[in-house]
Please model this.
Amino acid sequence: MMIYADNAATTKMSRAAIDAMLPCMERDFGNPSSLYSIGQRAKELLEQARADVAAVIGAAPREILFTSGGSEADNQALRSAAELGRRSGKTHIISTAFEHHAVLHTLKRLEKEGFEVTLLDVHEDGLVRPEELQAALREDTCLVTVMFANNEIGTVQPIRELGAICRAHGVLFHTDAVQAMGHLPIDVQADNIDLLSASAHKFHGPKGVGFLYARKGVPLTNLIEGGAQERGRRAGTENVPAIVGMAAALKESAANMQANAERMTKLRDRLIRGIGEIPHAALNGDAARRLPGNVNFCFEGIEGESLLLLLDDRGISASSGSACTSGSLDPSHVLLAIGRVHDVAHGSLRLSIGEDTTEEEADYIIQNVKEAVEYLRSFSPVWRDLMSGKSSFIL
Ligand SMILES: *Cc1c(COP(=O)(O)O)cnc(C)c1O
Model:
């Protein structure tokens, strides 16, 4: 059996996305800035995609800026809000410790440039408390940036309430909605969002394309200078096939969102129940306020990396919070932010199921995770010490 359970890392492109893209490459390949008809046809496709994307989140087409993905959108959103703040002497930014690195590393850079950053506690359940945002706001706060749903533990923030607090204080509110887009209902008006980032490859669109929503009247700072594309806010010839593919994928995801969410939530909870039977294991993040497809556990006495490799041998693609593969021995900053200690954070497993995951596949995953954890513990020195009472269990 081959089971792809790493949809939080990337998703397979949908048939709708591929079908929408092919004519853009084969026939409608013109440059949208060209005045002759083949260029104008590309321009039409581009603007239709913009209108389609805007409609899904309740925005106006002019408020959508196409980017190379979620990272670029995050960078541009934060830079723009910071620039705007600096002009009026406001240099305080509020965020959380478990944001994506596209946000955290941009914040680090802004700190070097003189901004002050307050990180809100995300607590053991992986959720920000609105009253703590309220308390952290200052006269000189220019931006609040809190992700819609976390990419590792899947927790979904009270975005509407956080946005309302920002709105009441006249502070710009950005949300990295990369994990939520296409999976959860998002309405930038009702949710009080000023800036929002999204990425196509997390909702069955192509890689290397995404968008930034910027509420009308919020001026953007360019990251890329050059031509006047995207109304002068991002230079470079538009990636029309990718943008069209993104719009097709998003329209489809939005149309099937509720049915998919219901089915996936059932499977998610089945996985959580099954894997939760393993002794000395703990679910990471709130059990209910999480993405329909996200399951994330810590297991005591094992390394997440070894678990991944064993699961891969059995045809299951999953992910671990520990970052050993990326050349660092640091455990996931997300798991540390919710209070997991280093040893426990190293033994983590993220399963992010897709719209097409079946009950049979979920049961296969449960069975194999159980066997793999037991096997790894059978020769783990850490586990031996725990069992002999030399060290004590945390989970
Ligand atoms: C994947 C991801 C990003 C980065 O998006 P790219 O399109 O890969 O640059 C940013 N934020 C979150 C929460 C993500 O999951």
Notes: The chain has a mean pLDDT of 96. The CA atoms of residues 271 and 363 lie 8 Å apart. The longest helix spans residues 37-57.
